[in-house]
Amino acid sequence: MGIDAQVEKILQSYTRYGGINCSGAESFPNRENVVTIIHDLQSLINPGYKRAETLDESNLRYETGLKINRIISMLTKEIQKAFVYEVRKQNKDKKNVENSHCFGLAEETAIALIDEIPELRRQIHLDIQALYEGDPAARSDEEVIVSYPGLDAIVIYRVAHFLYKSGVPVIPRIMTEYSHSRTGIDIHPGAQIGESFFIDHGTGIVIGETTIIGKNVKIYQGVTLGALSVKKEFMDKKRHPTIEDNVTIYANATILGGETVIGEGCTIGGNTWVTKSVPPHTNYYNK
Q1: Phi then psi dihedrals of residue 32, to 5 deg
Q2: CB proximity list for 34: less than 8 A, separation 6 or greater
């Protein structure tokens, strides 16, 4: 079979099965572009740690401005695509979408994220302190920043959660699933996670969309905060547990259900299976 015939067959499959993402405002957000934005955001949040860049007092202001402009430009385009896609999906008969309106909303959202960076850095500083103070193996804040996958997952989650709360479709999931692929830590951007969040080791952690986690919570590898049922009719219900302040959850514990509350100050032992609420200040272990 010649190449022309092969091209024709593949084009026919595009028509039959879809799955093409062309460029332009009406395309689906591009994963590689979103990953590039993540790298710029990580560099803006913890400059000099995630990329090979030469920073000093003489160029810090310039480099910071350069990153901000690049993030706003790229993120605006990807958020616009997400908004246009969502409008077209909800209005299937509406062929002409007001792209300029979506662009305006996208630009406002990208700028709002940049405005939020100082607050995100405050939260992430507390997460770094929680990791450093909670892990005897950590020798410095700097070591935590450059080498702890738990912190990478938390940083990307906090950015994605801001966009999720801002009503941005798709992109928050791209961000956290990229983090998941790199760290083995699966945090849905819709989860609500308080300050001073500690993830040690982290591999295999799953935190579902409607999970609520309070302050000063420690979670170890293999923990699942999941749903009792994955039926589609429950998609708008609270399906995942609530973890109150100052709780420690050890490795491979599974806590399920939207009505399940782990009370303040509890310790949940490793390899436990929890589907009912646990009163505050309880040590809960397998027996």
Answers
A1: -65, -40
A2: 78, 171, 174, 175, 178
What is the rounded distance in angstroms from the CA atom of residue 211 to the CA atom of residue 230?
14
Per-residue CA distances from 109 to 29, 237, 265, 277 (Å): 15, 27, 37, 38
Inform me whether the pLDDT recorded for 287 exceeds 70: no
User: Phi and psi (nearest 5°) for 235?
Assistant: -65, -25
- pLDDT digits 0-9 by tens, 208-248: 999 999 999 999 999 999 999 877 777 778 999 999 999 99
DSSP string, the chain: --HHHHHHHHHHHHHHH-----SSTTSPPPHHHHHHHHHHHHHHHSTTTSS-----TTTHHHHHHHHHHHHHHHHHHHHHHHHHHHHHHH-TT-----HHHHHHHHHHHHHHHHHHHHHHHHHHHHHHHHHHHH-TT---HHHHHHH-HHHHHHHHHHHHHHHHHTT--SHHHHHHHHHHHHHS-EE-TT-EE-SS-EESS-TT-EE-TT-EE-SS-EE-TT-EEE-S---GGGTTS--S-EE-TT-EE-TT-EEE-TT-EE-TT-EE-TT-EE-S-B-TT-EE---
Report phi then psi at 108, rounded to 5.
Answer: -60, -40
User: How many Cα atoms sit within 13 Å of 286 on the Cβ side?
Assistant: 10
245 backbone dihedrals φ, ψ, rounded to 5°: -60, 150
% pLDDT > 90, the chain? 77
Asked if 237 and 258 count as a contact pair (C-beta separation under 8 A), the reply is yes
Beta carbons of 166 and 190 less than 8 angstroms apart: no
By DSSP bridging, strand 242-243 and strand 212-213 are parallel
Strand 283-284, strand 261-262: pairing: unpaired
Q: Convert the pLDDT of each residue in 32-48 to its tens digit.
A: 999 999 999 999 999 98
